UniProtKB/TrEMBL annotation:
Superkingdom of the source species: Eukaryota
Protein name: Peptidase S8/S53 domain-containing protein
SUPFAM superfamilies: Subtilisin-like
Boundaries of every Peptidase S8/S53 domain copy: 49-254
Keyword Lipid biosynthesis: no
Family (UniProt): Belongs to the peptidase S8 family.
Keywords of the record: Signal
UniProt keyword Protein biosynthesis, yes or no: no
């Protein structure tokens, strides 16, 4: 019996390899700092902190970052089904521990060669992209941060600082495999996230072989909002990706300041 003849199999298509895409932004957009932007140490409204953002990204997450401080947060919502997963024997110094802010962390490497050399075989960040997009979405306010040499100094915060974060590490060496993306989307849906965020993609393809479009459709059916980046190719004609009409596709914008040396 072929797989395609099994009643539970809807479709089969080759796994593609996708690529990654992605302090002032939220103020520039006019998003309020309160009540959801309470600083660590202050009480955060319980209702606001019930929102769970599932982030599918590359390097995973660096849980020790101040952006993920859980001080003052209410207990993790009882409806949450996710977990923190680390491979057996992972060095204690790089184990990813969850708290009331990072409530889930999983990793997927079915698309990766078994002999591939990788930095961390667990949900820990190795390049910064996953930590960055997590902090942009839901990072706690952190005072007096800057780029190198003190450039762009100010307070950093996420768009919804009271939200919980669940990281699904689906990329290795800045390459993301369909087979892992689909598995992570299934897990995120079943774990109980409210929002799924993906800053990755490739050239548009028909929806029937687009792992993100397919997974996002299943998420939407369960009432989960899916937000994706539209690409890194600028104003090149036809370069926008993640174009399924049931996805919020987000592009970059200008901003009201510039960084000078």
């Amino acid at each position: 019996l072929f797989l395609t003849e099994m009643p539970e199999v809807l479709s089969i298509f080759p796994s593609r390899t996708l690529e990654l895409q992605t302090t002032r932004s939220w103020d520039f957009l006019g998003l309020p700092r309160t009540p959801q932007a309470a600083l660590p140490g202050n009480a955060i409204p319980t209702g606001s902190s019930d929102v769970i953002i599932g982030i599918l990204d590359t390097a995973g997450i660096w849980p020790e970052s101040k952006s993920f401080d859980d001080t003052g947060m209410a207990p993790v919502p009882a409806r949450w089904n996710g977990a923190c997963e680390n491979a057996p024997g992972t060095n204690a110094s790089v184990v990813v521990h969850c708290n009331k802010k990072i409530i889930g962390a999983k990793y997927y490497r079915a698309g990766l060669s078994p002999n591939a050399s990788i930095a961390y075989s667990n949900p820990r960040d190795f390049a910064g992209h996953g930590t960055g997009v997590s902090a942009i979405a839901a990072g706690m306010p952190v005072k007096n941060v800057s780029m190198e040499a003190g450039l762009a100094q100010g307070d950093a915060r996420g768009g919804f600082p009271a939200a919980r974060i669940a990281m699904y590490k689906v990329c290795w060496g800045f390459q993301c495999y369909d087979i892992d993306i689909v598995a992570a989307l299934d897990d995120a849906i079943n774990d109980g996230v409210d929002i799924i965020s993906l800053s990755l993609g490739d050239d548009p393809v028909v929806y029937s072989v687009d792992s993100i479009a397919i997974g996002a459709y299943h998420a939407i059916e369960r009432g989960i909002v899916v937000s994706c980046a539209c690409g890194n190719s600028g104003r090149v004609p036809g370069s926008v990706t993640n174009v399924a009409p049931w996805i919020f596709t987000v592009g970059a914008s200008s901003i009201d300041r510039k960084v000078t040396p």
